Input
Amino acid sequence: RPGAQEWVPEGAGIPKLRTAAEACRGCELWRDATQVVFSDGSASARMVLVGEQPGDREDIEGEPFVGPAGRILSEALEAAGIDREGVYLTNAVKHFRFERRGKRRIHEKPGVAHVEACAPWLEAELRVVRPAVAVALGATAARALLQRPVRIGETRGQVIEGADPQGTPVLVTVHPASLLRLRDQQDRAAAFQAFVGDLERARELIG
Ligand code: URA
Ligand code: SF4
Output
């Protein structure tokens, strides 16, 4: 099948996967991106958090969740009593997809083809880390982990068996960037609390 598979070294740990991903040509997104953004955190983490794709800051720095969405995620993890250093952070798609408007780079959602092409990396990461729970941050991550379309409004807060060979328990929640889009402060505070509630549930699952 087309996609990342041929670049994924068999039996590799996270450091080897990270290096190998630099050479991935499994879809066209590597072409315009600055660099691949692989993951952050410990390979022995009990909790994996999966985002959509690196954003503008992440593309420049080469690390996931270092921009505005990452800031909200850090605040929510802290409020849920989860140590960010103790979790494994990654994305469904490892290269930044964007549209150029003059000097600006505007985030563009990855397509289903990109999610499918990039899935072998995420599968390999789950095989190595074997977490007690994988948190799907938004619809793209949920699609990658469950290998079917997911409506966040209907499934958030639920724990569903992942489509990976281990059947990793997947807790579906919102993407932290969705909170940034809420203009009303009360709406945003309520959405933040609900997000923290989902993360607390994930924390209970890791014991
Ligand atoms: N949003 C994501 O989904 N992932 C990141 O790494 C940063 C922002
Ligand atoms: Fe490979 Fe994923 Fe980057 Fe596409 S987005 S080139 S599949 S690492």
Notes: The chain is about 40% helix and 15% strand. The longest strand covers residues 47-51. The chain has a mean pLDDT of 97. Residues 4-205 form a domain with the Uracil-DNA Glycosylase, subunit E fold (CATH 3.40.470.10).
